[in-house]
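The instructor's notes for this session suggest beginning with a concrete chain rather than abstract definitions. Hand out the sequence below and ask the class to guess, before any prediction is shown, which regions might be ordered.
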Amino acid sequence: MQEVLRRTIAEVGEVLLGKEHQIKLSLCCLISGGHLLIEDLPGMGKTTLSQALASALGFSFNRIQFTSDLLPSDILGVSIFNREHSNFDFHPGPIFSQLVLADEINRATPKSQSALLEAMEERQVTVEGETRALPEPFFVIATQNPNTQAGTFPLPDSQLDRFMMRISLGYPDPSAERILLRGEDRRAVLSRLKPTMSSEDLVRLQMQSRQVNASDSLIDYLQRLVHYTRHAPDFALGLSPRGALALLASAKSWALLAGRDHVVPEDIQAVLPGVVEHRLRENGDFSDHKGTALAQRLLNRVDIIG
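After discussion, reveal the predicted structure:
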């Protein structure tokens, strides 16, 4: 399975140049059974990453462009009257796909944003009183522009918490950008990507991830991190049990990516920013703009050995 992972990372890296760490975090989130939020400026490759992952994984893919006039039925689907049979036929919306890209999710109103809540948590949707299962595997990648930009509706905490990780891509380094400027159009490269992993491979990786060992001392370290967020005076909100579980699951998947069958503290440190930054608030700050500083403060102040 390590060879499958290496090929997948390399394949996606052909399109998204110089972003191996972010690609590995995305795969880590998928293997952990979570969903991914990518926040960055327009034009940084957020959509490209999701399309490349769908191609490399062989997933069915749908993109939903979130706008201020988007309705929940545009996401979930709608029943239309069939005159020939005198009944209503359900027409599934784009949510019925293995990988769903919710593009610029914070440009839609909270009502449309909330249409994803049940899908992301329960892997099902309820439309007109009937519950329908979503495809397996099911992975949501949402992109959003920084909330400081015009025309955005910040995601509420309940929606943010559905995302196991939030990452940003950032500007490319000079060498990668030079290849980008002088090389082939990335869309042409994207069109040539071949699946490197099957659904069966992913299920096997998810099972292996759950079997990765976390020692008592490792759990002690994780609990000290969680405890600090709940009791330090500069943290307005501490990590919830869901956040703690997400941190452990992500660390196990990161260890698996590294080819280990046990978690080490460095695994927790590698995934912690992506898992906790959007879940933390500083006292007196009602946004999540300081989550990055809080995550770094957490790593600096909590010792590995208690």
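Then share the key points. The chain has a mean pLDDT of 89. DSSP finds 14 helices and eleven strands in the chain.
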